[in-house]
């Protein structure tokens, strides 16, 4: 039986979770104070995911870069591939908040979207 101690990032409380595993199977989770904590604890030890935030270059824009993020969380092991793909992206101004700047990043089925409108 394996025991993992995590700090929950599901809400601002930052609860200390104890997750017990038998191989790949979660047998118990304790320390959470809300439903999101239990969900986070199980997901973090079985299939960890993250939202990726960064910037991409913008051509002829009012700013040299536009902030972007993955529309949904992606598997943690795809983060570096996501960043490598975004290094090669340059978008044309204008760009609107919510617009996809890269579709299906790292083969995840998740788009990367602009989080700010940048005009010419």
Automatic annotation (TrEMBL):
Organism superkingdom: Bacteria
InterPro entries registered for this protein in UniProt: CPE0013-like_sf, DUF1667
Signal peptide: none
UniProt xrefs under SUPFAM superfamilies: CPE0013-like, Formate dehydrogenase/DMSO reductase, domains 1-3
Protein name, per record: DUF1667 domain-containing protein
Natural source organism: Candidatus Fusicatenibacter merdavium
Organism phylogeny: Bacteria, Bacillati, Bacillota, Clostridia, Lachnospirales
